[in-house]
């Protein structure tokens, strides 16, 4: 878990300087893995990574929000701890 958290932080710091193509590849990979309905522990990791990438990616992440919101129905308090910014307006 510690390696996952450090990796997520590192990716978050690299997002502002990555190209749009690389950003698309990263988010596509994360969303594809999340779409496979992984175990809750892995889903949590993908969602945390998407959240970190989203904070740094700004406007480039609008299409990710609906997918992440699907996981708020999962019985896992960490997955449901969704910031107000993620809720629909």
Overview of the structural elements:
By secondary structure, the chain is mainly alpha-helical. The chain has one domain. The protein contains five helices and no strands. The model has no long low-confidence stretch (mean pLDDT 78).
Compile the SSE list and pairings.
Blueprint: H1 2-14, H2 20-35, H3 40-57, H4 65-69, H5 77-80
Helix pairs in contact: 1-3, 2-3
Key descriptive features of the protein:
mainly alpha, 5 helices, globular, about 90 residues, about 65% helix
Low-confidence stretches: none
Number of strands: 0
Radius of gyration: 12 Å
Shape: globular
Enumerate how many helices there are, as a single number. 5
**Helical percentage:** 55-70%
The class by helix and strand makeup works out as: mainly alpha
Sheet of most strands = none
Task: Kindly summarize this structure in a few lines.
This protein is mainly alpha-helical and about 90 residues long. It is about 65% helix and about 0% strand. The chain has one domain (about 1-85).
């Amino acid at each position: 878990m510690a390696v996952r958290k450090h990796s997520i932080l590192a990716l978050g710091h690299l997002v502002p300087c990555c190209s749009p193509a690389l950003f698309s590849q990263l988010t596509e990979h994360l969303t594809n893995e999340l779409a496979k309905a992984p175990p809750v522990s892995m889903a949590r990791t993908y969602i945390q990574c998407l959240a970190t990438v989203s904070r740094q990616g700004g406007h480039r992440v609008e299409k990710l929000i609906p997918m992440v919101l699907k996981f708020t129905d999962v019985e896992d308090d960490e997955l449901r701890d969704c910031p107000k910014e993620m809720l629909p307006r």
